[in-house]
Amino acid sequence: MQELNTKKRGKGMGQENNELLLTHIGPIKEMIQTCIQCGTCTASCPNTKFMDMTPRHMWRLLLTDHADVIFSSKSFIMCSSCYYCTLRCPRGLELTAAMSLLKQAALKLKLKRFRRSSLFYEAFLDSVKKHGRVKEMEFMTHYFMSMKNPLLPLGYAALGTRLLAKGKIRPDFSFGGKGKLTALFEKTAQLEG
Ligand code: SF4
Ligand code: SF4
């Protein structure tokens, strides 16, 4: 694999992380090797308004060995895995899977700027692992505690109140669980190496 262009190195990306990045990015680059830069993925994506870099731009950076720049953006974190881009790509590329691999790489690289997203996903998956579904109160409590910021819940108070009022979430504080999906998660981790 070629060297990364360090002139545009992402914020907080040290030499050690750069080497790790090269290891993680290789398989993703392979997946999008035949991209023709048509932009259909960008035009299909419902979340581009939340992204500071379009999906097409991301693939271009990957193909030109500027993957580190992608990690100075949070665009791939905004992917909601809707699969529109995957369905519409004229080259049949597995773009949603590529987005997931970028998220996994950000987790494994332990980049500070993705800490919040990482802890959010961890709390979400922990709840799914225990109950086979998300228990909202437990999930958010776990997330708030991991963030160690006592003021953080205030930012969610209005949303939480609205969701409770509409019956979208239940005030269930019976925490704990039997780990219904633990075996499934362990098997997946084993397969992913
Ligand atoms: S839709 Fe496919 S071919 Fe077109 S820019 Fe996106 S990844 Fe490339
Ligand atoms: S899978 Fe992700 S990147 Fe693709 S269209 Fe959906 S939100 Fe956008």
From TrEMBL:
GO terms for cellular component: plasma membrane. Residues 25-56 form the 4Fe-4S ferredoxin-type domain. PANTHER family: HETERODISULFIDE REDUCTASE RELATED PROTEIN, IRON-SULFUR-BINDING OXIDOREDUCTASE FADF-RELATED-RELATED. Gene3D superfamilies: Alpha-helical ferredoxin. SUPFAM superfamilies: alpha-helical ferredoxin. This is HdlC: putative heterodisulfide reductase-like protein, subunit C. GO terms for molecular function: iron-sulfur cluster binding; metal ion binding. Keywords: Iron, Iron-sulfur, Metal-binding. It comes from Desulfobacula toluolica (strain DSM 7467 / Tol2). It comes from the Bacteria.
